[in-house]
Amino acid sequence: MAHNAASIRTIDLLGVFWRSFFIQASWSYDRLQSLGFAFALIPILRRLYPDRDEFAGRLAVHMEYFNTQPYLASFVLGAAARAEEDRATGRNTAADVEELKKTLMAPLGALGDSFFWGSLKPFAASAAVAVLLTGAWWAPLLFLVLYNIVHVGLRLSLVFVGYETEGDVVILMSRYNFTRLARRYKVLSLAIIGCIVGTLTAWGPEFRTDLSVSPPLLAAAGLALTLGMIVLIRVGASPVKIMIGLAAACLILALGGFA
Amino acid sequence: MPDTHTIIQVLIAALIGGIIGLDRTALGQFMISQPVVAGPLTGWLMGDVTAGLVIGGTLELIWVLDMPIGTFVPADSTVAAVAATAIAALGSTTPGQLPVIGFCLLLTVAMVPVTMFSDHLMRQRNAQIPELAMTSSGQPTEASVTFWHLGGMVAFFLKAFLLCLALVPAGLILVSGFLALPDAIHRAMSLFITFLPLLGAASVARKLSMNTLDRTLLIGFAIGAVSVQLFHVPELAAIILAAGGGWMGMRFHGA
Asked: Which chain B residues touch A196 with a CB distance below 8 Å?
């Protein structure tokens, strides 16, 4: 073990940040993100272990099973970089590095899934679709901006936070209150979804119905239909089955001369 | 026999699907692969932006909360959006032909099991990659890990590329049959488009709230309906007002 190993530089952590975008390039059922984690950590291992055999040994260790939410993996990568630095300078053991990864991946996976997939993405999608339904061509750009300001910003900062805090989740949670943020995004999404249904009569021409119904009645019918479909999904009907049912209903309406 | 132009267009659509498909899992996850982006982008490249906007916007809300948690791999909404948009763009007699767009949206239902199965197969094959990254000495090297890891992206690209290459021609055959059907069926598919955003809204609301009659959802509805119908507020302003209403409600209830 090299007790006089070089310390990690900002450029090395930036290298990890860049490589974190490829963390799922070889995602598989058996090892999930294992190879991606090792690949992302290469700039750190290269810096700390100039000896080829030691480098290969540490690389092999990081190829063991690893899986978490891909964006919050940045935090684990930063923490693992710090743990490797401590190991290389003799302040830590190999077992500590592996233990740290195992401890972090499950809770961060649950946290990240809930925040990014379960609240930020539906918020950006609801806002973009609401704008798209008015006929605005720039709705996809709005989606990308709303989502990626948070996504890329967090991915970058979390590499450094993970490194500085040595993987302390308590500090992470106090600095970024993901649970509260997730709740806020969900509330905003629901309000926008409600607005989508409420503004049904003002949707762009592609989405506007030719049914001869007064606007207030149409909006009320839209709400009733939406609530009906929520109930159907709640009792187990999949959106795919409801799509088929809607197509059949439209066919009946058209054949009956109502459309 | 398809003409050369159509074959080239199908190949372009498959390339678009393959490249955009990388963003879904393997590269970046900047969400370019989400239907609301992938659909319009494909539509723009294939010469029918309207088809892309309608298909992308519609599929987005329906699939947005189908989450890749743990080892669960959801239906590939990227391939569905790209393929459906390409089919609509190439199969329509004029750009933005609503009955064809509606029919293509219905076709995405059939694409779901195909995309899930192919994703499953590919990820099973990927399990061999870590072993391949080991050199003859039994240890990995920087070069071997980099080569085999990044090589995994080829599999993700090929999966989406080949799926689009198979689904777009199959869809075009079905669209040519659809165009010959009576006008009432075409009207039905135009009407179908109107209802799908409501299904998307229901799908999102169901996953975000435990209550069918969610208070915030109803506040958003009331603000949207009243501001547009009673006060003739522009729709974009109505969306901001509804978001503001949701925000105020959240502050009031201390969320």
From this structure: 197, 201, 220, 224
Are B192 and A246 an interchain contact pair (Cβ–Cβ within 8 Å)? yes
Q: Chain B contacts of A231, Cβ < 8 Å? A: 212
Q: By the CB < 8 Å criterion, does B65 face chain A?
A: yes
Nearest to B36 by CA among B12, B66, B61, B67: B61
> Where are the extended beta strands (E) located within chain A?
none
B77-91 helix and B49-63 helix, angle to the nearest 10 degrees = 150
| CB contact (8 A) between residue A206 and residue B96 | yes
Nearest to B167 by CA among B121, B109, B98, B95: B109
Is residue A196 packed enough to be buried (19+ CB in 10 Å), middle (13-18) or exposed (0-12)? Answer: buried
pLDDT in tens, B57-94: 999 999 998 877 777 788 899 999 999 999 999 999 99
pTM (two decimals): 0.94
Nearest CA to B89 among B54, B119, B134, B127? B54
Judged by a CB distance cut-off of 8 A, whether residue A196 touches chain B is: yes
Predicted interface score ipTM higher than 0.85: yes
Contacts of A40 (CB under 8 A, 6+ apart): A16, A19, A20, A22, A23, A73, A77
Read off the tokens for A250: 């439209």
pLDDT tier at A3, thresholds 50, 70, 90: low
Residues 82-121, chain A, touching B (beta carbon < 8 A): 109, 113, 117-119, 121
Q: What confidence category does residue A89 fall into, taking pLDDT thresholds of 50, 70 and 90?
A: confident
User: Are A187 and B204 a contacting pair at CB < 8 A?
Assistant: no
A119-178: per-residue pLDDT in tens? Answer: 999 999 999 999 999 999 999 999 999 999 999 999 999 999 999 999 999 999 999 999
Structure token digits, residue B161 = 């590329």
| Helix, strand, coil % in chain A, rounded to nearest 5 | 70, 0, 25
- What does the alpha-carbon distance between residue B219 and residue B203 come to, in Å, rounded to a whole number? 18
Measured over the CA atoms of residue A5, residue A8, residue A11 and residue A13, the dihedral's sign is positive
Would you call B213 an interface residue with chain A, using a CB distance cutoff of 8 Å? Answer: yes
Buried b (16+ CB within 10 A) or exposed e, B177-205: ebeeeeeebbbbbbbbbbbbbbbbbbbbb
